[in-house]
Amino acid sequence: MKMFHKIVYTTDLSESSLKLIPWITYLSKVGDSRLEILHVVNSISPFYKMILGWNTILDEYSNNHKHKILSTLESIKLSLKENGINHVDIYLKEGTPHWEIVDFLDYTKASLVVLSNSSKNEEIGSTAYEVSCLSPSNVLIIKGNSEPRIKKIAVGMDFSRYSKNAFILSLALAKTFSAKVYNVHVFDSASLEHLPSNLIDELLIELNLELTKVFEGVDIEPVIIKEGSDGRALTKWAKENDIDIILISYRGLNDRTMFLGHFADEVIRSSQIPVLLVRKFY
């Protein structure tokens, strides 16, 4: 069984997006996945064209620009094939980037889209954020220069059926990459400030039991984070414990009005390690 049957690599050919190529190679080779490389060219406003008199020079310039991009994409494809990725296709679309990416994912039924952080600071870029909200596929966001490695996986667990989807996917990842899974719950101590301490202690014991799962061939460790109450507590813990990737799930299907929710939003904004948003249901 393939971990991800089809991976879409979106690139604007910036330095940050090209740094994803080692990750793309790593994921595609291990899972023998089909890889599709997508670049979206921003289209010129029809109003601007009208003002310029629909000058054919604009069309010639646009065609030359697309030809150069296709040549660059072909070079990336050739390099990937030389590195053992057998199934690679390239696509060039024109329009608003996040909408074109979402439509492409919906049409191709991809199981994973890989995005980089194109923002100059540590915040997530606008296109990556919009795709994260609207994608019908699982989304992997990679910031900075993290090396392609999946040996320690943290799953954000709030015990909803959605977070259980993330946990199920983490098991598959763990078996594929021989990794350890940390089943992590951020304890909402603020909402329990009026409870007696003995009941809080009892609750922590029960939560720990719920987090303790036994699956053949997978090393799973329960973790309860008591400091903090949102996604930043999870990303801080993950960074301090050298976690390679964070898995969190978010609900719903692609209805073009989807939002991440507070916890997932905090995770993707604050995390300095790769985050896999689990959209698909298992």
Report the order of strands and helices.
EHHEHHEHEHEEHEHEHEHE
CATH architectural label of the largest domain: 3-Layer(aba) Sandwich
Number of helices: 10
- CATH class designation of the largest domain: Alpha Beta
Describe this structure in words.
The chain folds into two domains: 1-148, Rossmann fold; 149-274, 3-Layer(aba) Sandwich (Rossmann fold). It has ten helices and ten strands. Helix 5 runs parallel beside helix 6 and helix 9 (231-240) runs parallel beside helix 10. It is elongated and about 75 Å long. Helix 7 links the parallel strand 6 (152-156) and strand 7 (180-186). Helix content is 43%, strand content 21%. It has 282 residues and is an alpha/beta fold. The protein has a ten-stranded mixed sheet with strand order 3-2-1-4-5-10-9-6-7-8, sandwiched between helices.
Write the layout of secondary structure elements.
Layout: E1 6-10, H1 15-18, H2 21-31, E2 34-41, H3 46-51, H4 56-82, E3 88-94, H5 97-108, E4 112-116, H6 126-134, E5 138-142, E6 152-156, H7 161-177, E7 180-186, H8 197-211, E8 219-225, H9 231-240, E9 245-249, H10 262-270, E10 275-278
Parallel strand pairs: 1-2, 1-4, 2-3, 4-5, 6-7, 6-9, 7-8, 9-10
Antiparallel strand pairs: 5-10
Helix pairs in contact: 5-6, 9-10
